[in-house]
Amino acid sequence: MNFSKYFKDNLYKLFVFIICYGINLLIFFAFKVGNSVIISSSLLYIICFLLILLLPYFRKKKFYDYLLANIEALDKSYLVLETLTKPEFYEGELLYQALYEINKSMNENVRLIEESLQDFKEYIEMWIHEVKIPLSTLVLMSNNHKDQFDKKTKLQLKRLENYVDQVLYYARSENAEKDYLIKEVNLSKVIKNVGLKNMDDLLENKIDYIVENVGYKILTDSKWLEFIVDQIINNSIKYKRNIKNSYIKIFVHDEKEKITLILEDNGMGIKESDLKQVFDKSFTGENGRNTNKSTGMGLFIAKNMCGKLGHKIDIESVYNQYTRVFITFAKNKYYDVLK
User: Of 15, 17, 103, 238, which is the most exposed, with the fewest CB atoms less than 10 Å away?
Assistant: First the structure.
């Protein structure tokens, strides 16, 4: 609590004191009061003024300094009321009560918004599941009756299926703890499932799907990891270069405390200026702008989901040479002991 600002705010007290003191001096002079009485009275006036000015300051300073310090220290400053005790001066009581009412109103509004968002999320998930039924039927028909579906139609179906999956997993990732199940998963099975899902696109684009040394067991959610890997493979297919011997290579680097899954391609690569933003929401970069194929959501959702699962995802790339994506899984010794 700044004293100079406090003094300016109470400057009227000084004016009142000067006026009262002046009137008192006039009365003393009128009645010819002795100098010793005038001096004693003046000292008493000054002492009383200082007490009136300073006592409330020190009384309030402790409360307001504590309030401001807590606001600055808290990550969520709206929780400051929980750290305060009710003050013993009237102005502080008014402020405390106002904060209480504001906090109560905010909590009520947040609750209503959360309920509304939860209802909307549930509706979106229900709608997606309903849409996936006819979509899956169309995809199955396109695979079973290839003569009746041209390549462009199958491509659009594949893109539509991918976008629907993105929406579903993005909605689920907001309440991840209710949807995922961490257990021991065979990494090779995840890689195989993703390869089978993208087999037609890989063949169509003449991309070699090379899998080496992935026979490791990790702790993760298989559905979520399949989606993450699928997003990366989709990007590799989407941004391939028109060269011979295009490939996507998947292998594992096993270290003492961690296992790193590496997905490498020799596609367009990513410009150095875009690398820091590839995981940002809706960021498409130069490749996305040039090809008009990207929503900028795939890697954003993958990063978000890796964070929820406790994995780490990184990317490195040299433009027009290669891109490598690293997904790191920590080894859980506690789990091994219990098992």
Answer: 15
HEC states along the chain?
CCHHHHHHHCHHHHHHHHHHHHHHHHHHHHCCCCHHHHHHHHHHHHHHHHHHHHHHHHHHHHHHHHHHHHHHHCCCHHHHHHHCCCCCCHHHHHHHHHHHHHHHHHHHHHHHHHHHHHHHHHHHHHHHHHHHHHHHHHHHHHHHCHHHCCHHHHHHHHHHHHHHHHHHHHHHHCCHHHCCCCEEEEHHHHHHHHHHHCHHHHHHCCEEEEECCCCCEEEECHHHHHHHHHHHHHHHHHCCCCCCCEEEEEEEEECCCEEEEEEEECCCCCCHHHHCCCCCCCCCHHHHHHHCCCCCCHHHHHHHHHHHHCCEEEEEEECCCEEEEEEEEECCHHHHHHC
CA 223 to chain centre: 22
Q: What is the pLDDT of residues 68-116, one digit of tens each?
A: 888 888 888 878 888 888 888 888 888 888 888 988 898 899 889 888 8
The answer to whether residue 209 scores a pLDDT higher than 90 is: yes
Cβ-contact 296, 282 below 8 angstroms: yes
Radius of gyration of the chain (CA): 35
Q: What's the predicted TM-score (pTM) here?
A: 0.65
As a whole number, the mean pLDDT across the chain is 84
Q: How many Å apart are CA 133 and CA 129, to the nearest integer?
A: 7
